[in-house]
Amino acid sequence: MRAFRGSFKKKNGEIRDMNFVKLQDLPEAFLSSLVKNTSPKRKLGEGMELVWDIDISDFRIFNFKSVVGGLTEYNYSGSVSKNNITISEEDG
C-alpha cells in the first residue's frame, strides 16, 4: 500500500517524524473494523489530515502546512494492526 515518510513541526515547536498511510489507502476491511463512532466528524484545521501512523499502530494527525524537509512516498509491504486485528497487503 502507498505510505509516506515525513516530519512536521508541532504547535509546541517539536518535530514529529512519521511513517503513515492516508486513510483512503488503508484496506477497507481494516478501517471499517476500527471506525465504530458514526457521530459527526471532527473538523480539522487547514492542512491537517487524520492518518494511520505505521510505527505506533494508531491514528494521528499529520500537519501538511508545517512539513519539514518534504515527504517521501514509498510502497509499504508490511501489515497494519490494532487491537488484535491484522491485515497484510495481500488481504487488502
Average pLDDT? 84
How is the biggest beta sheet arranged? 5 strands, antiparallel
Report the structural category: mainly beta
How much β-strand is present in the residues? over 45%
- Low-confidence spans: pLDDT under 50, at least 5 residues? none
Shape: globular
Strand/helix succession: EEHEEEEE
Radius of gyration: 14 Å
Instruction: Kindly report the spatial arrangement of strands forming the biggest sheet.
Output: 4-3-2-1-5
Q: Count the helices. How many?
A: 1
Number of strands: 7
Description:
With 92 residues, the protein is mostly beta strands. It has one domain (2-78). Helices cover 8% and strands 49% of the residues. The protein has one helix spanning 28-34, and strands spanning 2-9, 15-22, 48-53, 58-63, 67-75, 79-82, 85-88. A hairpin with a 5-residue loop joins strand 1 (2-9) and strand 2 (15-22). The longest helix has 7 residues, at 28-34. The relative contact order is 0.31. The model has no long low-confidence stretch (mean pLDDT 84).
Descriptive labels:
single chain; 92 residues; mainly beta; 1 helix; 7 strands; globular
Set down the secondary structure blueprint:
Layout: E1 2-9, E2 15-22, H1 28-34, E3 48-53, E4 58-63, E5 67-75, E6 79-82, E7 85-88
Antiparallel strand pairs: 1-2, 1-5, 2-3, 3-4, 6-7
Q: What is this entry, summarized?
A:
This protein has 92 residues and is mostly beta strands. The protein has one helix at residues 28-34, and strands at residues 2-9, 15-22, 48-53, 58-63, 67-75, 79-82, 85-88.
